[in-house]
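Hi there,

I know you've been waiting on this one. I reran it after we fixed the sequence typo, so this is the corrected version. Both the input and the resulting structure follow.
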Amino acid sequence: VGTLGFGTVAIPRAKPLMSRLYGVIHSKLGRWGKYALLSDLTKTDILRVIAEFEKNDGSPFVDGDELWLNPTSMLHVSWSDASRSPDDDSFSGIGAYCSLSGLAWFYEWDAEEAKKIKIHVGEMLAQVTNELLNKDVFAHSRILELVDNRGIVYVSHSARTRDPRLKLLSLLRRQILESANIRAQTRWLSTHKNVLGDTLSRGKFDEFIREIERRNLYLEKIVNLRECMPKDFKLLLRTLMDLTEDPCSPVDVVREAAEQT
């Protein structure tokens, strides 16, 4: 029952199965206690769970230490990260790499962006930007996103946050995934193991290339996003900085910004 209850979480508009069972067992109608019969609503939920399991081929169980070293053809993997150096002259920015497309990219903050784009916002911006750049490659498939910020993992799974900047990025992420029929899962990866994302976000490209070669991964190119920055990306950055200055912006402002981008 616990497993089935967990399974229904992925089904839109389905009331959690555990809630159904609790209602049946504690109902004053019909038979009581552990002898209670399953209601029609509960049976419907079970059938929905079975149908969900049948159409989802799942992901292979592997040793955790091998997950980011050996991505399989069944599950595409990406690494992303953001950094901020205390030294103004040092490299600070965001970056990400996709094992399927071989695309690696980075974006270095200017002085204003480094001041106004907080580190957790940069982490999710890198994640969303990577999804957008690889949307056509990821279409109709499953991806595993590895990030080293637990807060972003929580927001990616629950979409619950009071931060208007993360609300905006969460709305954009949902639109990207739904438009391309992408099923994404975000997992936490410790910083010292997130070598691919960390080196890109810090401008350490020689270390990044050595790590790619060590893991025998495919690398198509490394793109400087500032040199070919899309207009929408510039608008998104401006909106995030404006929301930093006015953190009390209402939800409708966030939704309007999401529609514009």
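Quick highlight: The beta strands are 76-82, 93-98, 103-108, 142-147, 183-188, 221-224.

Best,
R. S.
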